[in-house]
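Write out this protein's structure.
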Amino acid sequence: MNRLDVKPRIRVDVPGLLERGRTLSAPVLRKAVERLAAPMDTIAAYHFGWIDAAGNPSDGDGGKALRSALALISAEAAGAPPEAGVTGAVAVELVHNFSLLHDDFMDGDEQRRHRDTVWKVHGPAQAILVGDALLALASEVLLDLGTVEASRATRRLNTATRKLIDGQAQDMSFEQRDRATVAECLEMEGNKTGALLACAISIGAVLNGADDATADALERYGYHLGLAFQAVDDLLGIWGTPEQTGKQAWSDLKQRKKSLPVCAALEAGGPAAERLAALLAADAGAAGTVRAEVFDEAEFALRAALIEEAGGRAWTSAEARRQYDTALAALDAVHLPEEVREQLTALADFVVVRRH
């Protein structure tokens, strides 16, 4: 596999930052989940990797904890200790996992983090209910703080959540269309991924008294970091292996996703783009249903090759770098402790140079 041409510029222990976010937020997250009525509490515990499908303790993969790490750094951006960002980290993680539970069912994903998804194990109804419960908990844990800053943070989180849902609706609507433009795809991904990362990097600062100008600058960093993150995910969604993604091979192609590589390839024009467009147009029947179940591996390999030949893969790699540069430029608008600036730069490097 190739790497994007970005080299980490600063020696920062990124795995340590991610582990700090996970370690500090995990006890508070578990306590929040314990508020749920049975069986939602145990189903949520399964989703987070704390237990297996039989209810036994598990050390399953709980995700990268990028959003938690950002929330703790956000608190430091306001001059507070990282622990002061834990409540914000938990709130953002609850919203993020609400979206995963719903998205997995809507997208038909059977694997998440190398395990069966909640809807596959416990059924669609429970996946929806537990997702709804996590969303409600997110506002609850913030408002429990009872401060003016908590109200400001809740408003920002709710706005980010609405945008996230807008993005999912846009993503689903694209699946029923022959094509979407690159501009439409970037708007969708900015909503679906960028909005919550933007909230994560601002929420700790807001909870600790940062003004709106500081929070807005941090949000711009997070928004463009989210677009870089999603561009790399889009590459993995076509060319990544199950070991890298925790999902089935060709997952985005099987779901007929109009991801950035696909949109960029279609807009590029030329013989490969025209052949790809014809294949996509033929996918849906009269009701708009996808015929992916009848395809074999050779069919998906052909589509991936056409996307690459039309330039979709190269364009998306370059877009990830463009969004990375824009994210770092946003930090120039705000005064930050040097250590915080170094951490945010290193996390951006981590997001963009992930294997793809």
